[in-house]
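Input (Trehalose-6-phosphate synthase):
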Amino acid sequence: MNLVVVSNRVARGKPNEPMTGGLAAALLPVVEHSGAIWVGSSGRVRDGHQKEPFAEIEALGSGAIATLDLPAAHYGGYYEGFANSALWPALHSRSDLIRVSRDDYVSYREVNAFMARALMRFRKAKTAFWVQDYHFLALGAELRDLGVDDPIGFFLHTPWPVAAVMQGVPNHRELITAMLAYDLLGFQTNEDCQNFLGYVAGELGLAVEDGVAISQHGRTRCEVFPIGIDAEKFAAYAAKSASHPDVSRLRRSLNGERLAIGVDRLDYSKGLVNRISAFDRLWTEHPQFARSISLLQIANPSRGAIEAYGNLQNEVARLVTDVNGRHGEVDWTPIRYLNKGFSQTVLAGLYRTAQIGVVTPLHDGMNLVAKEYVAAQNPADPGVLVLSKFAGAANELETALLVNPHDIDGMARAIAVAAAMPLAERKMRWDAMMKKLRGHTIQQWSADFVAELEKCRTEKAVVAPLETQPPQALRWLKSAISGVRLI
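Output:
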């Protein structure tokens, strides 16, 4: 089977280049080893004079990357507008931050249609399309409109909220109906999957049975596929990067103090304000930790043109300045705050240097930083992971110190516990987490999804005739045939 992977952003896997996000890092090994073609945006836009999308193609391991310029007239409304000012806040249960117009939704659909047309050149015999993330919720429907009957799957890297939150997204019924054109929808957690199916049954009134939704498009299977990492590869990065200049300088600068590390995009879903407040509380309530624990917070800015992100960047910078002003000394800086990205190899070395990993998002699909931190640790002297119970990774990494990111005092206590944890307990917790990471790798994640996609398509080919469908689905189809538009 020829696999075409689709996402808004692609990565080239150069070891010394900064990574732009968890999705890009996760898909690299899939493409490198599967022979897939990975199609995404070039990061550039074009005017409307070019009739057909033009793709630049380059090799990536046994696979390839194809990038194309998106239409300038619609890019802003698609990316900064509907995708990141409507869908992203809603998917992270921040409906109060939704700022979107009708034109933004039109642009979102136009770019989805543009991408569908671009994908047709990669369609061969026995092709399957695997679409990634919230930027392309409607891409499956656009491909079906072009006559594509190949297997089309979709994986969501973010959470999926309860129905009441999704109802705050303009055109939500039309959009989620379009999602049912996919043969397979993958989610990070069971809660996300059940939230989606709850919307389909409750809001759209469609039949749902054993994780399968019946719609005008046929059968759509919804399943959980928790994304993993290549733990052994990341561990090798960490061991190798110990001598990297950035890592060596950091280690020399610590003067025996314990280091906590946080690595995040500068996003309101990551809980950065609460995290910094927890360290402030730690140093205030437990002054014995001053000069003995410091925080390295790497926060790579993104989506700066969106008001909520600009406000957050200013707020975090002010808070870091305030905390350092209260607790710092002439020869000690409590929080080292960096607004730039690092390559995976350097990050692995930084993780290994830190005795405490703090991954405390308010809401997250998986958060691969948590898994990377664990994989990077020295088996003989591992650090401790402090992890939000609202990250998808918490479902697998139960032996981390799980915290409520809204409980500032609780997080401060957990950091103190992590700093004082004896070696035997640290090794016990780390061994249990590494066992999970080795058993649920990125390669297994991709293989499981593609295998299920092939299975779903086989099931669709032998689906029972109309009369045997559940009564609710039959009523829906009859009403659609009679001209009633249910969106």
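The first strand starts at residue 2 and ends at 6.
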